[in-house]
Amino acid sequence: MRKGILTIAAVGLLTTGGLTACGDDSGDKAASAKTPKIGVILPDSKSSARWETADRRFLEEAFKAANVQYDIQNAQNDKTAFQTIADQMITGGVTALMIVNLDSGTGKAVLDKAKSQGVATIDYDRLTLGGSAQYYVSFDNETVGKLQGEGLSKCLTEKGAKNPVVSYLNGSPTDNNATLFKAGYDSVLKPKFDANEYVKGPEDAVPAWDNAQAATIFEQQLTKANGKIDGVLAANDGLGNAAISILKKNKLNGKVPVTGQDASTEGLQNILAGDQCMTVYKAVREEAKAASDLAIALAKGEKKDTGQTVKDGDRDVPSVLLTPKAIYKDNVKDVIADGYVTKEEVCTGAYAKLCADAGIS
Ligand code: BGC
Q1: Does 48 contact ligand 1 (Cβ within 6 A)?
Q2: For a Cys staple, 1 with which of 26, 126, 213, 303, CB 3.0–4.6 Å?
Q3: Distances from the Cα of 314 to the Cαs of 125, 131, 132, 309, in angstroms?
């Protein structure tokens, strides 16, 4: 068997790097080849708009372009439903299963079962700790957090903040990505806390990234800090918007920089309005395409070398990790130009003028 060589050349934003085809000319290829049918389980539709507005759309786009059968379902944050959907997909004959786990426990149960039935598996966006997925496709999530920490720091400097009190709204404690995001922003902010340049304010993790709960949590943080919070490290746009809603109630919006992630329509509008400091754009189209390419190859009995691995305990998981990008008011236009959201969505009503001011034509 000739093992194909693959390189991931410059897997960067807006460039289509990613996987190059890796031929497997082995004679046994035909024997192992199956007609690809790909099952995808998305986690919910409330923790972030991305799952339904971006991931579903771009996965469909990739599967249709490759002319493969697919079934994309959403577990709506219900772990039992997650397992039921997986069982149905396996019974329904999927050749590959892609999951965005709700936690590593149920994720592992699903992956192990799929594996035992000969179904190929991919961890999509979230790594299942202790799991058995054959590939992991995501972004460099520690860099996502680093961009958030740097962004908050930049906005605090621009506001002329002196010894600012910074609060944290971390993502779900059961999401490995939330751990990686925090490691990223801590790498930027902790040295500033240690040097007494910044003051560490309240810190909470938001269960299941629940945006509504995040508002309650942030309101409590603000009370606890006697109203003195000068910057909010919010791990995604939904949590950021929750903080902004409370800041608005206290007439503090626009004065206190808030971070985000996902370049959601709402997040971009909050940036244009001056209520949000920045967001992190992740080109989900590329993530979906990379995962789709791998799932199709696996179904054909081909192996792809991703050129990179991620450690999960003792296991080296072959991975594709794409590059995230920081978005501020002046480059909101890049997200629109990339086709992630449309001008019509972002620039509605009062945002039309703000869009024009930000050079979105
Ligand atoms: C994803 C983020 C998303 C969050 C909440 C994370 O695992 O990487 O893009 O905002 O989950 O759904």
Answers
A1: yes
A2: 26
A3: 20, 11, 12, 12
Pocket flag, ligand 1, residue 126 (CB < 6 Å): yes
pLDDT of residue 30: 38
The predicted structure's pLDDT at residue 299: 82
Which one, of 234, 231, 178, lies nearest residue 211 by Cα? 234
> Can you list the residues of the chain whose pLDDT is less than 50?
1-31
| Mutate which of 100, 169, 177 for ligand 1 pocket (most atoms within 8 A of beta carbon) | 177
Cα-to-centroid distance, 125 and ligand 1 (Å): 8
Distance 48 CA to ligand 1 centre (A): 6
Cα angle for residues 268, 142, 274 (degrees, 5° grid): 20
User: Exposed, middle or buried by CB within 10 Å (0-12, 13-18, 19+), for 170?
Assistant: buried
Query: Are residues 122 and 133 in contact, defined by beta-carbon separation less than 8 angstroms?
Result: yes
Report pLDDT digits (tens) over 215-243. 999 999 999 999 999 999 999 999 999 99
Decide: 47 in ligand 1 pocket, CB within 6 A.
yes
Q: Write the DSSP assignment of 72-113 as a string of letters.
A: EEE-TT-HHHHHHHHHHHHHTT-SEEEE--SSHHHHHHHHHH
Centre of ligand 1 to C-alpha 261, Å, is 8
Q: Specify the pLDDT at position 32.
A: 54
In this prediction the pTM is 0.92
Rounded Cα distance between 267 and 148, Å, is 14
Q: Model confidence over 117-176: pLDDT tens digits? A: 999 999 999 999 999 999 999 999 999 999 999 999 999 999 999 999 999 999 999 999
> Could you give the angle at the alpha carbon of 93 between the alpha carbons of 91 and 98, nearest 5°?
95
How many alpha carbons lie under 13 Å from residue 79 in its C-beta half-sphere? Answer: 10
Atom of ligand 1 nearest to the CA of 176: 7
pLDDT of residue 319: 98
Ligand 1 pocket residue status of 167, Cβ below 6 Å: no
